[in-house]
Amino acid sequence: MKKIRLALCQINPIVGDIEGNFSKILSFKEKAVKEKADIIVFPELILTGYTPEDLLFYPSFIKKANEALNKLIENVKDFVMILGLPVKEEDLYNSAVILAEQKVIDTYHKIYLPNYSVFDEMRYFKSGKRASVYEYSGVLFGVNICEDIFHPTLPSPIQASSGAELIINISASPFYAGKFEKKLRMLSTRAYDMGVFIAYLNTVGGQDEIVFDGRSMVISPSGEIITMGKAFEEDFIVVDLDLEEVTRVRMREPKIRWESEFERAEIIKISGEQKKSLAVQSLQPSAFSLKILSEEEEIFKALKTGLRDYVEKNGFSRVCLGLSGGIDSSFVALVATDALGSDRVTGVFMPSRYTSRESKEDVYELVKNLGIELIEISIDEIFEEYLRRLADTFKGLPEDTTEENIQSRIRGNILMAISNKFGWLVITTGNKSEMAVGYATLYGDMAGGFAVIKDVYKTQVYRVAKWASRDRIPERIFKKPPSAELRPGQTDQDTLPPYEILDEILKRHIEKCMSEEEIVEQGFDRDTVRKVLRMVKKAEFKRRQSPPGIKISPVSLGKDWRFPITNRFGE
């Protein structure tokens, strides 16, 4: 029986922390050695973290990654190690190095460089042109990187038709809600079509706007999930693969024979003896139960991961946020508490003459339920001073949104003063619906360092908050009409369509690139659609000045959204 033991190291790197990433790799390597793993695998660009962006332009950065690789080589003996890093040859490549017997056996360069959504790899890397197969103790395996496995023609089918029984794909695949199930179907189909085991290793953790969800997996030649890593957590996965299954499947369903007519991959032999002792029992498909997370759980875990890693990796000890008694700030406080612990979250309640009694009660109940610190600072006297100082300048003019925005900017100033004094990170509480149409105050409620729910529509906020609350968010917050409370009797719907309608219009425009006419054809009121799209366009200058926020949708209002501020199209 031909078996091999595979160790997948699903770890959370820090971009640019080459020494720290190196140490973590060594730690996981030691665990894999104790488990007598034959092949030990680490994710895409794991030495540098994904994605280093313009750090890749600095020769010293590439040199440091290469120095770390040279140190790693000394630690690789009696097993094969595969890991990702940028490699400089005649050009720069996104590469996987295959190490064994204290040397580099081969370097695979990523073929398909994604250049959409948050990806910008063509800015940095040259595409590879070669796919190889490696033979180790009688086992044939291929290696490729992330996007490569998504393509049905190259390189995986060439590797499989050249004899590979196992395809190892190292990845840094960012999360958005619903993507995992698509990826799962794709990988299962690839394994079944090629009649190979696929070991897909994804990184995990938050990096600025993007979150990696892990959920690495091994799939059998019949397309069934054998095992899977944790979602949004580091994990260490060891599995024994019986490669005879590949032979059995291919004999009965020889779907890749046609590939033999095309280019063949080079087979590179790796010396060394396979481990004889298999201490870990093989995991069979029947022993594994696949759990698909609900959209609410996925989003909540992504938000927690993104906030936690932004805070931890950037060295903040604490976060603070404005609490209004509304659903957005309450939900963000809940996310922060679950991500960091109640002892690292401070809520700041800044009531005015327009703040309702119910809002104050809800803030105090929320703070009690979450166990977080509360600072209360009234803005009334400050607001009154603003009005007095501006009275001559504004003489004869009616009050309007100017006076409303002054209140918001006073609150933003207070939050930033607290941040400045104590070194805390201000997290903002604006949602995607508001950011899309500009229903937010520049230098007011947009002031802060990190926008936790920037990519979460208002209707999603309600759903996810309800799922995560466990009675910690007061029930009245879910029921009362949303309001900024900047004037008497104000509600969001004085300015905006109902969120159920607004969000559906925004999804069609932002994520599906639909025009006014196309959205109207789907049954929406023309005047409403026109008003919403006009607001989206006018708010572009605000979005450019907003803090980064966590991506949880296919098209976020960050790196995914690149529109000119000066733009007359559609007018």
Automatic annotation (TrEMBL):
Catalysis: reaction(s)? deamido-NAD(+) + L-glutamine + ATP + H2O = L-glutamate + AMP + diphosphate + NAD(+) + H(+)
| InterPro entries given in the database record | C-N_Hydrolase, C-N_Hydrolase_sf, Gln-dep_NAD_synthase, NAD/GMP_synthase, NAD_synthase, Rossmann-like_a/b/a_fold
State the encoding gene. Answer: nadE
Family the entry assigns: Belongs to the NAD synthetase family. In the C-terminal section; belongs to the NAD synthetase family.
**Binding of ATP, residues:** 322-329, 429
Q: What is this protein called?
A: Glutamine-dependent NAD(+) synthetase
What residues form the catalytic site here?
44, 110, 146
Q: Which GO terms describe its biological process?
A: NAD+ biosynthetic process
Origin organism of this chain? Thermodesulfovibrio yellowstonii (strain ATCC 51303 / DSM 11347 / YP87)
Keywords of the record, alphabetical order, are: ATP-binding, Ligase, NAD, Nucleotide-binding
The cross-references to Pfam families, in alphabetical order and at most eight, read:
CN_hydrolase, NAD_synthase
Q: Provide the binding site for deamido-NAD(+).
A: 405, 434, 542
Query: Which pathway does this chain act in?
Result: Cofactor biosynthesis; NAD(+) biosynthesis; NAD(+) from deamido-NAD(+) (L-Gln route): step 1/1
Q: Name one GO cellular component term.
A: cytoplasm
- Indicate the segments forming the CN hydrolase domain, all copies: 4-243
Record-listed L-glutamine binding positions: 116, 173, 179
Q: What does the record give as the function of this protein?
A: Catalyzes the ATP-dependent amidation of deamido-NAD to form NAD. Uses L-glutamine as a nitrogen source.
